[in-house]
Amino acid sequence: MPASKGRAKPPSGSKSQVKKGKGKSPAGGDSSASTNRKNKFAGDPRAAKKTWARMAPGVTTSDKPKPPKPKVPTTAFQRLTEQIKWVDVVFEVLDARCPEASRHPRSDEIFGNKPRVTVLTKADLADMNALKDWQATSEILSLKNQKGKDKLIKSALAATESKREAMARRGILPRPMRVCVVGMPNVGKSSLINWLIGIHKTKVADKPGVTLGNQWVRVHPQLELLDTPGILPAGALSKESAIRLALFNLMPSGNYELEEIARTGLAMVHSRYPKLIQAYMPGAVVDKTPVAEEVTLESLARRRSLIGLGAQPDHMRAASLFLTDLRSGRIGRITLN
After folding, report:
1. pLDDT tens track for 38-63
2. Which CATH number does the domain housing residue 287 bear?
3. What angle do CA 25, 26, 32 make, to 5 degrees?
4. Positive/negative CA dihedral, 276, 277, 280, 281
């Protein structure tokens, strides 16, 4: 019969005794653990750095510098700036009735050194005498006829000639030049593309904000256009530019007071084009004669029989009527630079 059912004690110097002593060196160091740790991380430097940082007093992995995250465009301005890097030429579309006001105040920053063709649309509604300074440097178009289409395509091909020659020298197969159509809301970007291809392939309407996403359209064997949503520069517009954009429906209606803009616009048009206002409001004052009635929304309301409560002139309806007639060209061909 055995003396005890328990486990027998291991002899002196056995493996278990070495394990219990943890292999400490005479100097008190943990030589075996240190050796094992070095072997463990010999092939993985990143794991070694994290472990040593975790074991070092007062040091954490959060203290180590992290690699920078890639910048993702978050605003329409940033997305447009990023897209322009990948195109060959830019069509900058402006409204011929207010070309200066409809040009983005940061256009030079957006386009950089990219080849640019300036296009003025709605020439049929604009005063061509006021656009003499633009005729030498811009393509002035009326999208209601086909006049000027070939000239615009030649301008685009001429702007990309050096790029096509460089591709040929490097042995790159020819491809259509990419054109980015850029402009503020409702200046006629989508209408310009439809005019170039001869069909209504992009969505258009006489109000800002119709184009919501990017659209690639082939308009010529050597040209394809990218239609982009209009960008209204928030906070970067001068008061004078904002008034002109509102007058010609290049700004969402929620961004301005209709009556205030109509009163300001009526005074501006009266100052620039008195004969047009005289024809639009017969009998209204042109030269401030004392017998004539002044040019106001109230006088316009009385002439058009726009009467509201209490038999008073309805100035709000008169404001809406004036802006509609101004934008459609019923008052005449007007440009407010």
Report:
1. 555 455 555 555 554 555 555 555 55
2. 1.10.1580.10
3. 0
4. negative
The segment with the largest mean pLDDT, out of 139-148, 195-204, 315-324, is: 315-324
- Is the domain of 204 the same as that of 265? no
Give the pLDDT confidence of 182-219 residue by residue, as tens digits.
Answer: 888 899 988 898 898 876 555 444 444 444 456 678 88
How large is the C-alpha radius of gyration of the chain?
A: 37
> What letter would DSSP give residue 11?
P
59 phi-psi bin (left φ>0, alpha ψ -120 to 50, beta other): beta
- The verdict on 221 and 262 lying in the same domain is no
Length of the chain in terms of residues written: 337
pLDDT tens digit sequence for 219-230: 888 998 887 776
Assign residue 83 the CATH number of its domain. Answer: 3.40.50.300
Q: Which of 312, 331, 209 is nearest to 265 (CA)?
A: 331
Residues contacting 291, CB < 8 A, separation 6+: none
Q: Which domain holds residue 284?
A: 257-328
The pTM score is: 0.72
Q: Within 10 A of 144 (CB to CB), how many other CB atoms are there?
A: 12
Instruction: Looking at the structure, tell me whether residues 198 and 272 fall in a common domain.
Output: no
